[in-house]
Design goal:
47% helix; Phosphorylase Kinase, domain 1; alpha+beta; 2 domains; 20% strand; single chain
Amino acid sequence: MPCEFSQNQLHGYLDGELDAVSASEFEKHLGSCPECQRLLAVDESLRKAMRDSMLYERAPRTLRENLFGHSTQQVSMQSPAVRSASWRWLAAAAALVLAVFLGWRQIGHPSGPSATQLAVAALVDAHLRSLQPGHLADVESSDQHTVKPWFDGRLDFAPPVPDFSGDGFPLLGGRLDVVQGRTVAALVYGRRKHIINVFVEKASPVIAWTGSGSTQGYQWIAWQKDAFTLCAVSDVSSADLNTLKDLFLAQ
């Protein structure tokens, strides 16, 4: 079974696209995962080979003249053998580029992550960032009438902010977060000694994203409610997240 890190974060790490927390987490994982070590070595080797191979050759003079420098009459005067050689050279160059690209796709990206995998990886990254000191909440309060108005003017929508203290999910606060370039509301709940982030954004008119699963040791569950898409992420059990989802849906 492919490693979740290799599917979701390896290529972002190689391209320098991960934030500091995610990069540090991946490097820590890399020390104990032979699969990720192997795939990273393959990608780095392929990238170096492509960089060092100098896949460039000056076009034959006749081809340059045909394309850029001569009149129609001069082109028509070239022999069939010259024209044939020019096109054979161009076809060979195109075939080489295609072969390199397909080889890179096959070796470095055997199966690209799906949109859901990318979204989940981004939400887990946001959850991990929130656990750093001073990042959990922009407004710390267990009063929904304090947290909900705080979002006014900061978002172009008013997220639902219920408090489920009586059901074992006390509201701890809220903040703004950025997920895949979109500003979303993040509601923070407690569950015993654990933290749950519920990310809220306006629902897409095209895709209704729902589902659940686990990645990097964290559970996630996504659902639709009214005009919103919500996704809860935490290290609590999937049963706890399902209970929280049901409480939201019952509102």
